[in-house]
């Protein structure tokens, strides 16, 4: 479990080196099954917005339908928060398939990222230790490779490419058609958000498919919070995926969230400056 915390710390360090304050970014990178969290306000004049504090519950549902009609549903729920200085907090548990027996003592993982003090803190409920990873000054940090997607691409493809007979990637014979639609504004769980829907239509033969199929990605982004409050994806290759922020509180979160609990042993880790 220390390894899980250490990997989380490394991921946060990479994120810090590439985007010192990711919460203020107007455009997010494409990552994971849900695809790009592209800002609905990317066409607005660039400016540095104030950091809006909030607390919320992030609910994710994945539904996959097998060829024989069997449906598999996975649900996860995590708590998160951000204060006006940019510190973020996340509390999560391992995913449990719908209907599966929940263990009486599930391990809860906690992650804190503090861009002002350049630290990432990780701990969990199964031990009494907290790891504090200290990040070097930005000028001393070595550039890191881009964050890879958290899920594997569709079989036989890499970012839309198709494997040839020699194992080399080649462009699809018929590229998919992409349509972007502005869905306007609506209120989601008490927060006004702007919606964007992108639709990709893959013609027959584009990725080895014998018939056309369509992939949709819908994102609703809050102007105030500068993050997605609802994402809906429908891909016949992987199923449907929904992420929604609920129980949104736009007040300052409890400062105690951003510190390890009392009684925990704190282990400091320092990254050596790179030449």
The rounded Rg comes to 21 Å
Q: What general outline do the C-alpha atoms trace? A: globular
Segments where pLDDT lies below 50 for 5+ residues?
A: 1-39, 141-172
Helix segment count? 1
Biggest β-sheet description: 13 strands, mixed
Overall helicity: under 10%
Structural class, judged by helices and strands? Answer: mainly beta
Question: pLDDT average, as an integer?
Answer: 76
Q: Could you give the distance between the termini?
A: 31 Å
What fraction of residues sit in β-strands? Answer: 35-45%
Number of strands: 16
Order of helices and strands: HEEEEEEEEEEEEEEEE
Overall number of domains: 1
Explain what the structure shows:
The protein is mainly β. It has one domain (2-144, 158-270). Helix content is 6%, strand content 42%. The chain has one helix at residues 2-18, and strands spanning 54-65, 71-82, 88-92, 96-97, 109-114, 119-124, 129-134, 157-158, 161-163, 169-170, 177-188, 191-202, 213-222, 227-235, 239-249, 265-270. The strands form two sheets. Strands 1, 2, 3, 4, 5, 6, 7, 11, 12, 13, 14, 15 and 16 form a 13-stranded mixed sheet that branches. Strand 8 and strand 9 (161-163) form a beta hairpin. Mean pLDDT is 76; it is low at 1-39 and 141-172.
Give the helix/strand layout.
Blueprint: H1 2-18, E1 54-65, E2 71-82, E3 88-92, E4 96-97, E5 109-114, E6 119-124, E7 129-134, E8 157-158, E9 161-163, E10 169-170, E11 177-188, E12 191-202, E13 213-222, E14 227-235, E15 239-249, E16 265-270
Parallel strand pairs: 7-16
Antiparallel strand pairs: 1-2, 1-15, 2-3, 2-4, 3-5, 5-6, 6-7, 8-9, 9-10, 11-12, 12-13, 13-14, 14-15
């Amino acid at each position: 479990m220390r390894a899980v915390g250490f990997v989380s710390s490394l991921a946060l360090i990479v994120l810090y080196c590439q985007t010192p304050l990711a919460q203020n970014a107007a455009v997010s990178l494409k990552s994971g099954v849900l695809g790009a969290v592209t800002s609905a306000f990317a066409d607005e004049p660039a400016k540095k917005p104030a950091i809006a504090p909030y607390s919320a519950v992030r609910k994710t549902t994945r539904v996959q339908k097998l060829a024989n009609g069997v449906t598999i549903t996975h649900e996860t729920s995590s708590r998160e928060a951000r204060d006006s200085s940019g510190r973020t907090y996340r509390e999560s548990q391992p995913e449990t398939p719908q209907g599966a027996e929940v263990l009486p003592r599930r391990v809860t993982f906690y992650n804190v990222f503090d861009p002002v003090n350049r630290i990432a803190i990780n701990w969990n409920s199964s031990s009494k230790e907290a790891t504090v990873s200290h990040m070097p000054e930005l000028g001393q940090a070595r550039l890191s490779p881009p964050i890879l997607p958290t899920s594997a691409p569709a079989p036989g493809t890499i970012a839309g490419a198709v494997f040839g007979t020699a194992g080399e990637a080649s462009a699809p014979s018929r590229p998919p058609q992409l349509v972007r639609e502005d869905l306007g504004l609506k209120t989601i769980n008490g927060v006004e958000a702007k919606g964007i829907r992108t639709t990709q239509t893959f013609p027959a033969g584009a990725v080895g498919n014998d018939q056309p199929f369509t992939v949709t990605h819908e994102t609703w982004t809050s102007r105030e919070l500068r993050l997605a409050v609802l994402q809906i994806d429908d891909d016949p290759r992987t199923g449907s995926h929904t992420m929604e922020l609920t129980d949104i509180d736009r007040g300052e979160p409890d400062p105690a969230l951003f510190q390890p609990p009392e009684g925990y042993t704190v282990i400091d880790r320092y990254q050596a400056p790179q030449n």
